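haha ok so turns out i had the wrong file open the whole time. this is the CORRECT one, sorry everyone. sequence first:
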Amino acid sequence: MKKPFVTLEQLQEIVKQYPTPFHLYDEKGIRENARALKAAFAWNPGYKEFFAVKATPNPQILKILKEEGCGVDCSSLCELMMSDRCGFQGGEIMFSSNDTPAEEFALAAQLGATINLDDITHIDFLKDTIGYIPKKISCRFNPGGTFQLGESKEGFQVMDNPGEAKYGMTREQIAQAFKRLKEMGAEEFGIHAFLASNTLSNDYYPALAKILFQLAVDLKNETGAHITFINLSGGVGIPYRPEQPANDIAVIGEGVRRAYEEVLVPAGMDDVSICTELGRFMLAPYGHLVTKVLHQKHIYKEYIGVDACASNLMRPAIYGAYHHITVMGKEDAPCDHKYDVTGSLCENSDKFAIDRMLPEINIGDLLVIHDTGAHGHAMGYQYNGRLRSAEVLLCEDGSTRLIRRAETPEDYFATAIWD
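then structure:
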């Protein structure tokens, strides 16, 4: 059973200061997880995690990760600006975007970020935009087809369809890209790929690594490019459901090490640095959406109405994602009531849970919606004039700190033209 990282007594004190709904983050958990990831890849001297800013774009969270030795992966102008303002510099920033406007390439180059090109046509676009090709550059690879891992020891199959994804270059294109970039002055090359999302298998990263390591060896032989880093991107998942197994990052790191020694070391490429670009794995379990029960409705189904809505967490509404719910103070009570837990938007998809078995819920109860630390607040919006909530940090010493205030009606109206 999933357990909140906060107690009812703590929450009762917190909500006196910060009205619900709000996203609450666990500083202790974030730091411990970042250290475990770093330890798992400590065998690689150049290893660095480039946190996917899109997952949790909060300056105070980014600063915590910076203190733990992480870099940032950005995919837009504002993410680059935020990272710069948080003190990330040069090689601490990876810029991986697609369908990229010229101004974003220009800022990435100005900040000294490592640019990861999504398409072969972006070579000339980048050159025309900034006037040169950086000495260090990366290209994104898409192997096409279907990526599949058989039944893992955890009992879950990993499958995705890179051939349906809009990202990356074909095998032929990435070889052409390396040759052209080398001719245009590039001296250090990187390879990036993303093949599957939210995998619950310790085998995924090692399998991806082996594909990219072999590609690196082949590209070195074909193009003469000096490949200095390989970015395994994201895809290492978290168990949203209580019955799912968690990934073991130490086992994953060891699996990547074995692939490294099997493929890269014999090819004389033992100077290659490993990069990761994790968002969900880094932050999701360390965020809760805290909401209060406002109403009960008894019609054809039993509905629990809360003060949060899909504006605060849209994943369940847009693709039926599961997020576990704890009724605070009733953690040990039997789950013998079936509810739909709903928000206030004028959309029938605005439901955090459908036919969920939970303890009996009363008006005024506090609910914790789990695993919202990534792709939670970040995906918020203002439909129906519902405003985005505050973000609060539960500090290591047990105190709390507001790290983003809730939006106000004045924020909502600020961009409107009234005359």
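Confidence is low (pLDDT under 50) at residues 152-156.
again sry for the mixup
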